Amino acid sequence: MRRFFNLGAGIVFAAGLVGMGFTVQSDAPTFAPPVLITSAGQSGDAPIATMLFKKAEIPATYEKLATEKNLEGTKTLVLVLGASMKGLGAAGLDAAKEKARVSGLIAEAQKKGIAVLCLHVGGESRRGDLTDEMIASYLPAAKTAIVVKSGNKDGIFTKICKEKNIPLQEVEKTLEAVEPLKKLFSK
Known about the structure:
The protein is of the alpha/beta class. The protein is 42% helix and 16% strand. It has 7 helices and 6 strands; from the N terminus they run αβαββααβαβαβα.
């Protein structure tokens, strides 16, 4: 009987908070370090994401060409979605090799129970056919996504996240991603 009363009181309390303009996210995913950050598309956005983690004071390691071996000891895999033909060329990759690398990482992360967080911090300028292919392929593996709002003007992130029940957080500017990151990694 006591459990019923406590549960009922909790529901009444939560309903009161919602009525006052607060949102209660008891099912909001949380993430834990150690964090491995890599690009899905070899854009210059992954180093920017690494800087965001540093500002949020979340320990993270950036590996430009991370493979399954780099997942050892990792609790969160961060995929920074954004393709760059120049970046792929500089890394000695083509789109097919990059897709195979990232798909292998995701498969291994899922096998090991490693949470996947997707970021898109390049905004509208980082969008294009190849980036869109990567978003469609890799975003469904995420527990959460944080995107710069201008990169979601066509609603691609909203659509996929809604279909796959993935929490989506939009920020106006890249630096504004620091606060959502802090919340996702708080215990």
